[in-house]
């Protein structure tokens, strides 16, 4: 596979993206059956074995948190795992059209809610900054619409390495970045289109104010607790050292009930569940902010509506990877339970979705955008890449059905707030939210 260099920046041109591997993070794999010789002792494995020996088996959530975001050795902290040289590929890295349509979504919501004089674009887990870069390009192209609006960009990122890549992708070289490792705003700069941009480690530190929030393939990396139904009731899955093979980890069941059981629904019918308290905390924070100051949140991820069981899996070098092998060298992820996100938002804001990626992108006009780019491009390799990218994003057997879109909006947005009084329609207002129904400029 070769990575093609980005070419051209004009409004209608096609931007070349990484060659598309055949695997994305929606695939599944069960763990625990790798032969011992495939189990190198990584610094993270050594750290975990030491930890388990000192304080006992750890929950899957603690394991995920340590492996992914431990400040010294975490998988996300010091590497670029996206793209051809990395471990997995995501929609914005596959096709520029993805980010462009999301940019249109934010502008459409901004217009539908009264064209505020300022807004913050906040992305959680921005990866290489590709998605926000594509969104900002749309904002520039629609500069005449947004001309009186004060926009700022706020990125929530724990990875030192990725934040550096984001800065390279997004900021103007001539304006030096301000850095302050000890501060909640650890980096500040100006984007190529002259917009102020800041980096934070936690959503909590992003200033409150009218904001559009975006989380693409972010919730799936948050730590999950796993539970198995047993004749004695729910028992949490822990990770322990294998007594047969030193330096090898294995799953075990807790002998008695554990506190995270409180997150399981009383009427749960599945026999295995994954719960993600951190996702609940973030959705509550987003909901409170949107209820207080307006705006919207768009969440896109693979997931289910409270129906799936064991979805915990690993990715390394574009291959599925045993989650307990060589920790720290592979990505760990679990499907997002959208029914839980909806419950956590309930009462504070309205939610829409989850709807399938192919429906959302179709409603946002992906076919029209593809045609424009194809018509403008004479380069056969770029045309082929555009078509392959479209197929990867839209094909129900690829990302089209595995990925979902979910939105949080102020209640007034769906009830017809003061900016929607002239919409004399019998349809519910949800039908006016782009992506969840066909895009219609208002
Ligand atoms: N949204 C990007 C990247 C997805 S990978 C894309 O779709 O291409 C997950 C991203 O979340 C990475 O940027 C990772 O560093 C970041 N991340 C992981 N855990 C995080 C946490 N707890 N807080 C903030 N960012 C986190």
Biggest pleated sheet: 10 strands, mixed
Question: What amount of the residues lies in strands?
Answer: 15-25%
Radius of gyration: 22 Å
Oligomeric state of the chains present here: single chain
Going by CATH, the architecture of the largest domain would be 3-Layer(aba) Sandwich
Family: Belongs to the NDUFAF7 family.
Protein name: Protein arginine methyltransferase NDUFAF7
Enzyme class: transferase
Catalytic activity: L-arginyl-[protein] + 2 S-adenosyl-L-methionine = N(omega),N(omega)'-dimethyl-L-arginyl-[protein] + 2 S-adenosyl-L-homocysteine + 2 H(+)
Briefly characterize the structure:
The chain has 442 residues and is of the alpha/beta class. The chain has helices spanning 43-55, 60-69, 91-94, 96-112, 130-141, 143-146, 160-170, 277-293, 338-345, 357-363, 366-376, 380-394, 396-402, 411-415; strands at 58-59, 118-124, 150-156, 178-179, 185-190, 196-200, 211-216, 225-230, 233-241, 249-253, 272-275, 295-304, 313-316, 319-321, 331-333, 336-337, 350-356, 403-409.
